Amino acid sequence: MGADDPGQEPRHHGGWEVAAATAAHAVPGVRMAGFRDRSGGTFEERVPPGPAIAIVIDCTPGSLEPFSSGAIEGGLVAGIAPTAVRVAGSAIDCVELQVDPTAAQALLGVAPRELNGAPLDLAAIWGRDAVRLRSRLIETRSWDDRFALVRDALTRRRRSPARVDPEVADAWRRITASRGRVLIGDLPGLYGWSRTRFWSRFTSQIGVSPKRAATIVRFDLALRRLGTSAGVAEVAAELGYADQSHLHREVLRFAGRTPGSIAADPLWTVDSVAWTRAHAA
């Protein structure tokens, strides 16, 4: 499939170009999107928690920089629950991956819980393979070709994963499918497990506790809805927050910003559009 395939045609939103990988580049447990900023602006954002391991591979030399560790070589890797680290950049041109935690061990060789904390450089996990991949992406302009490069790299790196219990995988599926509103206390009984066993297995294999996972899933959806200019009251009601104040506190806690500032920021609009497209692809 060539770069002119309509399924791969990038869309433009303000000064941003957004592309989503199609089924031709599918990797189980991974979604891919591309972002190119033509506005000439700069940004500074806190890395928020999310229901996937995020990998951002900068396709231009040195335009993306986490405040905690300096310029990246291979790509920025953030776990489900990163610490309050900020990232700055300008003239962004990057490929972003969202890796389901149940697939992380096979693709990254690292358990999800080990990726929480400060974001890492992909080169610290993949070594020179990450540096070579980034170099090839910098040399490539076509989104179609970039997604193919990433797909091939993931395929080569895939290993036999540490086993994820079927019960844990099912619980994770229920949490995401319910948009974080499943009754966590009911889950251990579905599998005939004690609460302690369920909590321990889930936390070790997904990376956060079941309750924390549900909070993060709902928060991520709230961010994406706010990015589509949905009203704060509407989002709070839709996702089961007690009220607008509850949503305000959660966004301030995890993103370091108010819901209103998220809704007014074109970067979050672009992000919401990209992952909606990637999910549908």
TrEMBL record:
GO terms for molecular function: DNA-binding transcription factor activity; sequence-specific DNA binding. Residues 167-265 form the HTH araC/xylS-type domain. PROSITE patterns: HTH_ARAC_FAMILY_2. InterPro entries: AraC_XylS_family_regulators, Homeodomain-like_sf, HTH_AraC. The keyword Aminoacyl-tRNA synthetase does not apply. The keyword Transcription regulation applies. Keywords: DNA-binding, Transcription, Transcription regulation. This is AraC-like DNA-binding protein. The lineage of its organism: Bacteria, Bacillati, Actinomycetota, Actinomycetes, Streptosporangiales.
